[in-house]
Amino acid sequence: MMSMMYQAYQNHMDLTAPWRTGAAAALKYLNLVPQGAADRMYGRLAAALELISRSSLTYARPPYGIGSVTVGNRELEVTEEVAYATPFGSLLHFRKVDGPEQPRLLLVAPMSGHFATLLRGTVKTLLQDHDVYITDWHNPRDIPRSEGRFGLEDYTDHLIDFLGQLGPRAHMVAICQPSVSALAAAAIMSEDNHPARPASLSLMAGPIDTRIQPTKVNEFAKSKPIKWFEDNLINYVPMQCKGALRQVYPGFVQLTAFVSMNLERHIKQHIDLADHLAKGETAKAAVIKTFYDEYFAVMDLPAEFYIETVRDVFQEHLLPQGMLMHRGRPVNPAAIRRMGLMTVEGEKDDICSIGQTLAAQDLCTGVRTYRKVHHMQAGVGHYGVFSGKRWNNEIYPLLRDFVHVNS
Fold first, then answer.
1. What value, to the nearest 5°, has the Cα angle with vertex 62 and ends 56 and 63?
2. Interval 165-223: pLDDT, tens
3. How buried is residue 283: exposed, middle or buried, by Cβ count under 10 Å (0-12/13-18/19+)?
4. Which residues face 95 on adjacent strands?
């Protein structure tokens, strides 16, 4: 039965845990052996033990690891503080010790099978010129069922609550999937004349209207009825976990789908990792290990949130058709006024194609033309919109100036 697959997977992981623990322990002792004539034999053994010890996923959030940041010509210490929390997510503040006053910015991370730490590079760049907060979502497998459901409306409510904590004139930057909820939150807060409505909204590679140049991801979402997703992808959290029997789209199922899209590349990476370890090329091995430490840290998605996102955003396109509802009231992007709006897209984005995020500009008819900015970044795919050299050198300076103008 599909819904018990997660339990079977967890049982298997628990049974094989001693092997991984033993391999990790043996590797520690092996590293104490003096280097000498038998280096190659030890190298191969070390590589094998390393791969065995790494042959599992982790369901705990990796550290952000941002200890300091350069602001102007000063190196400032950064500390993480939970400014506000609910059972489903924390408003995490990257506080700069003795830092200057800078625009407050809420970075909205996607709920897409990985933790918000996937955006650590984005955070580090933003910290140079902004007082940064992030939506640090909790793993549903660790949230007791008694805490209730978490759907698309709950996500939007969290953004409104988090902005309320930041206070007036903060800025909101949404990465990918939550662009829909970010636009909805901004519309509702504008309509209510909420004192903490954001001063600017930036949507980066977000699926505002997936009818425009549909990608393979969009086509898959429309290729099957919603019942197929419920029957084939939703599982119960295993009994060993705090969130036992909560319904989720499991992280390991999502990761399997991601890996299968580029299976040959992932196999080659692990062959290369073993080769680097056997040859003692620790720096090269470290690059691959760091990537997979993050990639194999997976987070489940609440079933309601996943199903409602597939249905409302990717199948029925409710927002661009003016049919999206929030707590019984229509979401009206035209209500957004006195707010800057920036949209960013990547030329080679195969997840959220050109035009899908730009669609927000047409929906927000109440925003003055001079407060609207759109940027299409040449030569980047989906992740290049918010990470890497082009983000740092070409996209970020535009975003920084946009926020500054609207502060």
1. 155
2. 999 999 999 999 999 999 999 999 999 999 999 999 999 999 999 999 999 989 999 99
3. exposed
4. 79
Q: How many CB atoms lie within 10 A of CB 231?
A: 12
Distance CA 215, CA 212 (A): 9
One-letter amino acid at 274 equals A
CB 233 within 8 A of CB 6: no
274-314, pLDDT tens digit by residue?
788 778 888 988 887 777 777 778 899 999 999 999 999 99
Compute the distance between CA of residue 256 and CA of residue 260 in angstroms, rounded to an integer.
Answer: 6
| 163, two tokens | 């902005």
Give the HSE-up count for residue 402: Cα atoms under 13 Å, Cβ half-sphere.
27
Cα–Cα distance between 389 and 403 in angstroms, integer?
A: 20
Q: Judge contact between 235 and 248, C-beta under 8 A.
A: yes
- Would you say 296 and 290 are in contact if contact means Cβ atoms under 8 Å apart? no
- 239-260 pLDDT, tens digit each: 999 999 999 999 888 877 766 6
Q: Is the pLDDT of residue 38 over 50?
A: no
Mapping DSSP to helix (H, G, I), strand (E, B) and coil, where does residue 120 land?
helix
Q: Tell whether the torsion through CA atoms of 210, 211, 215 and 217 is positive or negative.
A: positive
- In DSSP terms, 132 is beta-bridged to 105
| 8, 11, 12, 18 alpha-carbon torsion, rounded to 10° | 180
